[in-house]
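Aim 2 progress update. The chain analyzed this quarter is reproduced below.
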Amino acid sequence: MKTAARKLPTFDPRSVPVIRVDAHLPVVAADALVPQALRQRFIRPPDWTPELRAEHLFTDRAPARASVLIPIVMREQPMVLLTQRASHLASHSGQIAFPGGKVDAEDADTIATALRETFEEVGLESASIEVLGTMPDYLTGSAFIVTPVVALVVPEARIAANPQEVEHVFEVPLAFLMNPAHHRCHRFDWEGTPRYWYSMPYAEAGREWFIWGATAGMLRNFYRFLSA
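Predicted structure tokens:
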């Protein structure tokens, strides 16, 4: 007998109480965020443990493989490229995300998936991307086993958002995301079980981009990797 899939809860993540802000943790130094330092970090990775590996599942379906790109645009101040998912999408509509998606059978590996999906979503060609390496897999609450692929992107790269998948493309300073004073831990109780997740709200030109959930979790792991 099949088990019925549980539905994702409906809630406003901005309204969920913040139980902790990690201003006491060290900031990743600016000289560790430049391209050459990032390359060296992946060539000689530290002994470290990811803080977050799996979210509390909201579904009973079998996990599916997926991959995302964490694109660091090599501007004078390194920037992380993010997207806001289109509001009409069936899952995670309107949320802030990295470009990426499910693995196709034709993909050679998870890096190929991330590059293909990035081109399909934001028109960023692989010739403008330098892959540095991958981070540990992250299991989302919607049952995707996601491999984050970290890459450098040339600043003159052409971006053309696919309106079928992406509503907005924007950039956030890597230094902002690697400062734990901007990492807010939330607690959300669902079906008698507490769920904890991070948010990293970023305000720009009078607008707030609410980075949370899996995207914030993978960024938190990236912080742990760079600060180890």
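Residues 24 and 134 are 28 Å apart (CA to CA). The mean pLDDT is 91. These observations will guide the mutagenesis experiments scheduled for the next reporting period.
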